[in-house]
């Protein structure tokens, strides 16, 4: 039987999308060219938004217990402590704390959830070509021609899907070579956050990882390092910097890598029956820990819309809102992470003077700390200006994130908003209005509330607010368009 969706790539983005689609009853095949799951840490910052995505999917599990809480970031310049920036604290945005946790651990939880939902990953299955037409697509993978309705390319920065569809990926390099290593090290620094050391154009950063004396150490490569350094050369340089700046030493090595930091954004997130998400659509500096979380947000957004289209409850034009909502998020992340990278790795005496005398000391300012923490959390992401947003209303507006909260279900049972979401929608308020929403959306959880009713999307954003059935009908018809099929009861 042909799958309704083929997801290419079994990283956090692809797995998030696959879990969301399977939760909605969509048949999915997940293909990945790797022989087996990765065991190295790679990305390690789970922002509050990422925690919420996993929570709604039922994939969070014990990650908060296994991860390290992030408390602060300390910045040292020329041997002097210039800033101590508290992070990981509860924000004004009423969200969970972020975590330092390996990407491999996150993927493991997502694979477990996918298995519970009846899905799996097909390893060692590289995609070699994709051909799309108005009614579907054919994916060539592992010697098989897979016919499907939709393809989601979540296959990373070198995306085969993006290249096969001829989608441009313009951008510029930021740092030609960046070194990192996960190591066991003797390092007399706090394991409650990250520490960085700056000397002129030199940058060194260390992040604690779960496990005894395990750290991630990272730095731009010096000009005299060979073009393709091996593990010994990478560790040799990072170890010398660590000894120079901290007096610490590297014991054993778990993993090393070298990569180029690029800033790139796809020309489009959708071309007919093919969509892109995560690093296949946007790449940027890892400083700030935004990449994995942005990709997971892409996946949750596109999956619930794709499920509505596949079920026949919405017209395919609903998918146009995916790019309109998520591309501005990626653009903002590219801008902020690029700016952070350029500030920290100051090029030129004037820029370094600005960094050391103004930018870094400002990190001690409580107002600046709140502003940066709120933005980095991704809890402020809003789709107010997107095509699904309603007219302007006071207070919480359609498109805004709705924080998790304790509520009562229609029968009086205590529950949480996020327990009710994903894949279904939730309506806080009138049961009669919930019945109106069900006619077009399928499952809609009814939760008790006072005042105007609020219809909440599966991704936790406010869809509609009001008290009129006619207004809700109009919003549903405008948003979902003419369905391809008569929705089932």
From TrEMBL:
GO terms for molecular function: FAD binding; oxidoreductase activity, acting on paired donors, with incorporation or reduction of molecular oxygen, NAD(P)H as one donor, and incorporation of one atom of oxygen. This is FAD-binding domain-containing protein. InterPro entries: FAD-bd, FAD/NAD-bd_sf, RIFMO-like. It comes from Mycobacterium dioxanotrophicus. Its cofactor is FAD. Keywords: FAD, Flavoprotein. Residues 4-336 form the FAD-binding domain. The keyword Flavoprotein applies. It comes from the Bacteria.
